[in-house]
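In this supplementary section we document a worked example of the pipeline. Step one takes a protein sequence of length 472 as its only input; no multiple sequence alignment statistics are reported here. Step two produces a three-dimensional model, which step three serialises into structure tokens for compact storage. The input and output of this example are shown verbatim.
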Amino acid sequence: MRIVLIALDGLRPDMVSPEATPHLHALAASGVRFANARSVFPSETRVATPSLITGCRPGGHGMVANTLFDATVAPDRLLRTKLIEDVAVMARGGESPLGRPSLGERLAAVGLTFALVSAGTQGAARLLHPAAERLGMFRWNVEDTKGDTAARMAARFGPTPPHAVPNIARNDHAARILLEHVLPDLRPDVALLWLSEPDVSFHWGGLRAAHAQDALRAADAALGRILAWREAQPDAAEIAVLVLSDHGHVTGRGKLSLETELRRAGFRAGTGLGADTDVVVAPAAAPGLWFRDPAMASDVIHWLTAQPWCGPLLARDPAILPEGAATPLDLLGSGHPRSADLVVTFAGSEEADEWGLPGHAPFDAPDVPEGGGMHGGLHRAELATVLVLSGGPVRRGALATTPCDLTDIAPTVLYLLGFSADGMEGRLMLAALDAASDAPPANELHDLGRGFVLEAMRAGTGRLYPTAMRRS
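The serialised model returned by step three reads:
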């Protein structure tokens, strides 16, 4: 059996339709669609990718944000995990900063192969397949310019197109390498194609801007070419295709800089622990704060909770805060020694945005314009993801209601190939194979304080799946 994973970065499940995504819509109708699929928190790409590939939430693998602070390796600045150099800094001279083995490593241990073709960032590609060189496996990313793999792909397929908005040319180039080299020549047991659209166009233009719709159609067309390739194979019946998104999007409305706002309020905020900084701020849809002295956290919280844009607060160690001031990150599976002392969420709304889609929220992202798509928080539309599985032993024409998230994918891949997923946190998505294994979740509400609640789903095994933060 072979398995092909295709990730459409940032795709909201409510944007899948016969008109916008005909191939994905048809695939969902012919295979199994997981209606209650979710991302992890924070719902950011370089938190989601390690969760996908390790089968563990951020508290297990340790990649806790796209942009973060780690005083033990870079006390003077923030680390941006899209940069391969910063991923290397976090690895401390080792192969990977991840606290758990990757899917590629687990497959190698049982004599199988994994190949990655990525149209995302270099940092994300390294996190998806950190041991590729040591294992002698294939990893190629659109930003690669050095090394034997980059040289061979350039010689055969020509130079990688430049980054653009929409990023259609780069995504098509990556899909071509998958279809014309990886699948026919390397024949890996598991292959992953990571497409950077529609995420890129959602960020820089809005969820239903004309160019974003073009990007979405182009990503769906790439999926169509992969499905056509499968149908042409003699072992087509034994090739499973799994399509996923890593997070959704809301429309960003009310752009601000938390660092600037803290400075205006009299706090010495910055992006590294310099002589003039007491609070390190990592901008995001859910910004992280690290305190030089935890004793000052109470003053910052007192100011934050007076701001109309401030939503629930989450803490790595709530003991440094007044009782009840923040919810433990551990509730979301996101507490780790690298986590921020305090994570701020923004008070968004489920009302329709200017595109007619539910969901908008304030955000802190210097390079995303007002009205652009954003993700990272706990909004319903940020956490909801696409998850469709088709082929091999998978049921046909089924809708699964069992809760699942990105961490459940790798264990299921290993199970389909006949191997154990011991050590992974994720659950097996047996509902893909057997209707009797499907069961709707038990729904719960968790009080987040200050008039906010967390909607969550509880699986039969007891595992909690966060669904949405909203006003109570």
